[in-house]
Amino acid sequence: MTASIAPLLRAAGPALERALAVGALAAHLSRDASLVPREENDQVLITAGSAAIGAATGFGADLVLARLGRRVPGGRVGASALLGGAGASGWVWASEVEERRPLVNAAETACAVAMAAAGVGEAGRLALSALPAPVRAAFASRSAAFLAAAVPALRALRGRMAEPADRVKASLSYEYLPTVSGGHGSLAPLSTLDREGRKFLGLAVPEGEIAEVMGPPVRSPIRVYVGVETAPSPVARVELAVAELERLGAFERRRILVACPSGAGFVTPVPVEVEEYMTRGDLASVAVQYNNQRSHRSLDRVPVGTETTRLLLRALRRRIDELPPDTRPELVTYGESMGAWIAAEVVTEDGLGTIDELGVAHAFLIGVPYQARQKLRQLVGDVSALPPSIGVFETSEDVVTLSEPQRARLAYALLTHPEDPVANFSGLRLVVERPTWLTKGARRHPRVPRSMRWVPAITYLQVLFDVKNGTSFTADFEAYAHDYRAGLPAALRIVFGHCVDVSPEQLARIEECTAASARAQAAREAAARQRPPLPSAGYPASRRRRPARLGLRRSSGGSGRGR
């Protein structure tokens, strides 16, 4: 292989040498820390992609420098020194500017590329050209072999990001409560639901378990799930959902919780289970699916999800208003990740007054994606100050440490970790624009790694993989990146107004039970992958087991559910 590459080196000469030098620099920079830890397969792909981008940049830059070298003293070397020095000076200036205007961002990107491609590239080119030809050829061949090694890693990544197999969906077994939809006489048959709908219904907390934690009196909670296959349009799905709630007696309950699902229809189990405990089962939860693919494949379905959520909230408000004032249930909303995006879109399209118009008493949005956060910032910028009922937080501890008067006023909260990759991923803008959360020195949030730096294009690849890793959880709860489960019960107790009727001791038991439920679900999914599929219709007989009193434990990550 070395012999076959040697002629190419001789033919391309300085351009290929610069491409190899800049590619090697990019490969080195790609190994810097980013928002969350990544696996070796991920790093191979990031490094290979970064090296390819660097090589292409170096090759193109050399063609420009060759022309510029004819007009300045010193030829190609002089042109590289001139352009590299100007790039370094401009990059130092632009990186220190606090106000990130478009012109400053463009200057920083251009200067960083010039500094690397011209200055560092020329130094690397000269060093490489000084080596014997066989050594240069061996270096080039190893670089090509490294790029080829990324192919199996890419294949493995695509497999992990694929939709769950139908066999696994059909094999999951639950014992469904009589107060959930899908059973005999249901308008939303279980046979029309996929994995996420069945999970939502199957994880309803039994009345006996609620009584064991909270004490009597308790009720069996209601859950309703309408899937994309249950009805053909958002309007029809919402009508079915409201009819199912009516059939099961939801409007006679203390509260109705509208859970905004992710693109795949996934609803985080923890908040719904927590609220079932805290209301002592006097709760009806409802979710209406708008797509059945993972969130990164459902971005074009955001308008459909927004329309579905708006229709559902309005329909519930109309039905609640028909009831006598002293019997009306409270309407509360929870959304996480893409579900939070959907809920935020409902508010940002119509303004803060939408909250009162829809009659939402409490709302909790968690892990809000970048696009929705930008719209919410614009919305907040249009008002002089947020009302005291609305809070924006970076950690669940920020919620828990509120004073008693602040807790009493809080009814609507947004919680987004500073290092959450979903909240920080601005898409292709990361290729050419340093984000505000990657500022320098004391201005950077302590939870964003100090060693992380913005590099054109490379940071985009790193954060793209951070998003993939940040949305794959183990059964172990964390309060880090895109995982909010560890601190969620305590924060939800405050946001949903349970400080008086839920004691600290009961909260501790709820935390243990929801953690144990997550472990039981992880074991159920693991077992489903090892056995043949069960019939898709009806209620499979499998008890919902919950190990007693398991504590919370932090984990560094791993593969798990997809959103």
Question: What can you see in these coordinates?
Answer:
With 563 residues, the protein is α/β, with parallel strands linked by helices. The protein is 53% helix and 7% strand. The chain has a seven-stranded parallel beta sheet, sandwiched between helices. Strand 2, helix 11 and strand 3 form a beta-alpha-beta unit.
Key phrases:
563 residues; alpha/beta; seven-stranded parallel sheet; 22 helices; elongated; disordered C terminus
Give a summary of the structure in a few sentences.
With 563 residues, the chain is of the alpha/beta class.
List the helices and strands and how they pair.
Elements: H1 2-12, H2 14-29, H3 40-68, H4 75-96, H5 102-129, H6 133-161, H7 166-171, H8 195-202, H9 207-214, E1 222-226, H10 234-248, E2 255-260, H11 269-278, E3 283-288, H12 302-321, E4 330-336, H13 338-350, H14 353-358, E5 360-366, H15 370-381, E6 390-393, H16 396-400, H17 404-409, E7 412-415, H18 421-424, H19 429-432, H20 458-470, H21 488-495, H22 504-528
Parallel strand pairs: 1-3, 2-3, 2-4, 4-5, 5-7, 6-7
Helix pairs in contact: 1-6, 2-3, 2-5, 3-4, 3-5, 3-6, 3-20, 4-5, 10-12, 11-21, 11-22, 12-13, 13-15
